[in-house]
Specification:
The chain is mainly alpha-helical. The chain has helices at residues 13-19, 21-35, 42-66, 74-89, 99-118, 127-146, 148-151, 174-180, 182-204, 207-217, 219-224, 229-255, 266-279, 284-311, 328-342, 351-360; strands at residues 168-169, 172-173.
Length: 362
């Protein structure tokens, strides 16, 4: 009797990778400094900026993606976190706390400011909420510029001590290590990013995460089912602001300065919002991919392309028309137009968003 042919076994690698993409990405990024020597130089600083931008975008995704509240002032909380951490750590001030307690206090301050902003705006949605958050961002930028005795004005606050300043562990001066080797900040920002991703994934599957989505889909129906829309929105404001403030703390420490207030303007808020929309609203992997494309293009690819153009002597006169950076905004706009036209749910959408878009499509 002839043996019955066995059905082909479906490879289990692809579903496993899809379910554990974060573990694979974390292992690859953690091993990268040992395999890519350039991460010990300028590339390491660029990757640190990329990780910090991912944390900032994940904070915005709580508001825009999960809860459906339009937020155009996320850069303001980014700046509040950076300046609060700097005020608590710079040698010119009497506080002179370490990085860890300063980051905790700055993050808590941002959460409180987020609650203060969210409480009087609970009844606003859509364009009205967008205008309020936009105005708040401009107010914060002007305050950072004019409170020179506290914020340093346009000069900012510096030097911001690196994490571990004055601490020796295993014969290693941690402050000196952070100041001289970009890989220390690389690993610190990567660890914080991994912790934020894990926390948000747990929240996404929790009762609070389901309440966020319920309020986004239909606030009236969610209220009728016993969900407190007020508490849900306030929690989104607080958590989004806290995560953005944490990213600001890392940003100031990695640069050893807060930079000037223009670093926390409307352009940064729009860039982060575009990354969230490009990747997919409410999707953690989509948000990370959107940041990798937009911010990675701006901080890694564009400088490399400009250096290559100069090395090949394609643009000896330095004309902006022949520089790669001169066209980056046009590339951003073109990419967004194409994504919104052919994949409006984003590159890696959340399952609910993908299902809704597929139902609308003919």
């Amino acid at each position: 009797m002839a043996a019955t042919p066995r059905a082909p076994v479906r490879p289990a690698l692809r579903p496993w990778l899809r379910a554990h993409w974060d573990v694979v990405a974390l292992v690859a990024l953690a091993a990268a400094p040992a395999l890519v020597p350039a991460l010990g130089g300028a590339l390491g600083g660029q990757m640190t900026t990329l990780f910090i931008s991912c944390i900032l975008a994940l904070g915005l995704n709580v508001m825009v993606g999960y809860t459906g509240l339009v937020h155009l002032g996320i850069a303001a909380f980014f700046g509040i976190g950076a300046y609060a951490a700097a005020i608590l750590t710079v040698p010119m001030n009497p506080f002179q706390l370490g990085f860890a307690p300063a980051a905790v206090l700055a993050t808590a301050l941002c959460a409180g400011v987020g609650l203060a902003l969210g409480a009087p705006t609970l009844r606003l949605r859509g364009d009205y909420l967008a205008i309020v958050t936009l105005g708040f961002g401009e107010v914060v930028k002007v305050m950072l510029r004019n409170l020179e005795q506290i914020t340093g004005g346009m000069k900012g606050l510096n030097p911001v001590p690196p994490p571990g300043a004055g601490v020796t562990l295993g014969g290693i001066d941690l402050g000196r290590a952070f100041a001289t080797d970009p890989r220390w900040f690389y690993y610190l920002s990567l660890a914080v990013l991994a912790a934020v991703v894990v926390a948000l994934r747990r929240l996404e599957r929790s009762r609070l995460g389901r309440a966020w989505v319920a309020v986004r889909e239909d606030e009236l129906a969610a209220t009728a089912m016993g969900v407190s829309a007020t508490r849900v929105k306030l929690s989104a404001f607080a958590l989004s602001s806290a995560v953005a403030g944490l990213a600001g703390c890392l940003y100031a420490a990695s640069l050893s300065t807060t930079a000037d207030p223009n670093a926390y303007d409307f352009n940064r808020s729009i860039m982060v919002l575009c990354a969230v929309i490009l990747g997919g609203l409410g999707s953690i992997p989509g948000t990370l991919l959107g940041v990798a494309i937009l911010v990675g293009f701006d901080t890694v690819l564009a400088p490399w392309a400009d250096a290559w153009i100069q090395e090949m002597r394609i643009n000896p006169s330095g004309s902006s028309l022949l520089s790669f950076s001169g066209w980056r905004l046009a590339v951003f706009g073109t990419a967004l137009v194409l994504v919104m036209r052919y994949r409006p749910e984003g590159l890696v959408p959340a399952r609910r968003e993908a299902a809704q878009v597929s139902e609308v499509r003919p």
